[in-house]
Structure formats: C-alpha cells, structure tokens
Amino acid sequence: MCGTDVFLDYLETLEWDKAPPAPVLPESITLKNTSKYIEACENLTGIRLS
Prior knowledge:
The chain is an all-alpha fold. It is built from 2 helices and no strands.
C-alpha cells in the first residue's frame, strides 16, 4: 500500500461527491500517510528516520 492509498481508502468511506472543497482529513489518516512515506524513504536509503 502506498501513501496515496491511505487517503483514497479513507475518502471512499465518505459520502463525498468528489467536488471541491475536499473533506478535511483526520489527523490519524495524515499520520498513517506520513508513516508510509517515512517507511519508504528508510527502505530506499537504508537510513532510519524515526
């Protein structure tokens, strides 16, 4: 699962017509997304960031 999947999976659970403005994302979703990108960066560079 890539970082954008976290957002897309969450947005699919909402009753949103996909027209602006986009819904506000809860902190738990943004933290989960950040975690995915940190993990990817660590895997690519071999450097532990967290």
